[in-house]
Amino acid sequence: MIPIREYAGRDVAVFGLGRTGLSAAKALMAGGARVHAWDDSEATRTAAEAAGVPLSDINKRDWQTFAALVLSPGVPYKFPQPHRIVRMAEMVGVPVVGDMELFARAVQALPERGRPKIVGITGTNGKSTVTALIGHILTEAGRDARVGGNIGTGVLDMAALHANATYVLELSSYQLDLVKSLRCDVALLLNISRDHLDRHGGMEGYIEAKKRIFLNQQPGDKAVIGFDDRICQGIAMSLAAQRPGDVIEVSSDFVLGKGVSGAAGRLTDHIAGPTITVGDLRQAPALPGSHNWQNAAAAYAACRALGVDSAVIMQAILSFPGLPHRLEHVGEIDGVRFINDSKATNAQAAEQALKAYSRVYWIAGGRAKAEGITPLEPFFDRIAKAYLIGESLPAFARSLEGRAAYAGCGSLEKAVRAAFDDALASGEQDPIVLLSPACASFDQFRDFEARGDAFKSLVAEMTGSGGLQASA
Predict the structure, then answer these.
(1) Domain 104-319 falls in which CATH fold?
(2) pLDDT tops 50 at residue 427
(3) Dihedral through CA 457, CA 458, CA 464, CA 466, nearest 10?
(4) Which of 57, 124, 277, 402 is the most buried (most CB within 10 A)?
């Protein structure tokens, strides 16, 4: 845990007691603050109290006694409208901060030589993979790498600050909205596409939130920016004009004149000096597809900026085990492979999965984003058949009508069984059943992890019992 001592002896309100809220409350308590924690959900309050966090209905307290409001990133800050708790804080001038801002201030309070390195990663898609990959590379290189933030361990639950450590942090747009002091030695912006627009007042607000990852960087700090979408291209060129030599562009679409490329699966380094061919990304089993080649290029660029040798980075890329729910190979039955890509909660993420395989038996659906699966039309020819689940079933059926075969299954269990039957009967070599929903999970599951775990359990049951072998 990282104790937050800034508010020692003062009253602090904490609202939203999920993972990050609990973490912040405990870190503040460890630093001597008087914590007043609350959540609108009775079940969440009960769990927080059981975890040792003191509850106090901050709706009924005198807000002029609070030194700060620590807001969970899941609670609306500005859009579609500020939560009533935010409005209460603003009415009396109580500053609103998040867990990442508390972390940033704790780092800034250290003497210059006592500060750890900070690597921040954001983007609409791919940030979890890149965060985990950078952590893996640094660990394989013998560095003290601590991975967390929006992935895995909450930032304030991480090991205490240490000058020789490198904190590798996934940053969501919600977290970045609440950041003012964070300085990243290496900041990565992978890509930007339409997502979470309701929480940022539109696309412009979403872009501005993502750009906050470069806030407070100083000359010599590195900005690694994906060059495969037009928005990020513009950000990269603008930032390079302001900070020549500090921007490293990465791509899987282009062989860059300067930067790092994963085009055609070949990792090349042209950060400085002549182009170096580093290795073949097609040999990295946990990183299939061109989107993962850009992810690998970004991780490579970040680790080179931290002084890790190219050969060491490439070896670590090849040994990377991958992440659960991200193109995760979870089993094989009678030659049919099952791929869990439950993390694909929007069309852009599902597109990367469809591009990674030439032909799939595709399980899709849930609570759809505004664009549905319309952006995926160029890849419908890769769909042998789609198996639709959840709330989006009627809309997705309309999108696929006359363009790709589909079946309305409703539940994940029915979809897995139907997809297996059809894949097995196809006679194709190495057919693939792909769960890549292009939707949020909240209509049927707690989150994308629960959805992916359910998929894995269904495959495991089939593997263990041979329950579907009779359909061969």
Answers:
(1) UDP-N-acetylmuramoyl-L-alanine:D-glutamate ligase (3.40.1190)
(2) yes
(3) 180
(4) 124
